[in-house]
Amino acid sequence: MRWILLLVTLFSFAIVFTAKSAALLGFFLVLGLGALFGSMFSFAAERVAAVARPDAVLLTDKDINVLRASIRKPAANATASVSSANIGSANAPSANRG
User: Which of 4, 49, 67, 75 is the one with CA 20 to 30 A from 58?
Assistant: First the structure.
């Protein structure tokens, strides 16, 4: 379809450059511009579709929630171990001095 629109664009502009009446020029100018925008968007849509990932490889809501839960659990354990390590290290130098 995009190639047909591109050919219609070229044909319309060829008629526009050779037209002798204003009505013919106006009609084919509008047709050519419409086909030009249509072919431009058609080529852009094909390009986007070529690099887009299919829906089958996207994560589901369940997978996202499992990932979020796995990230939150180690973060909570890490902060608890860091705070207990800081308390123990703060008391250790005073014990060595005494």
Answer: 75
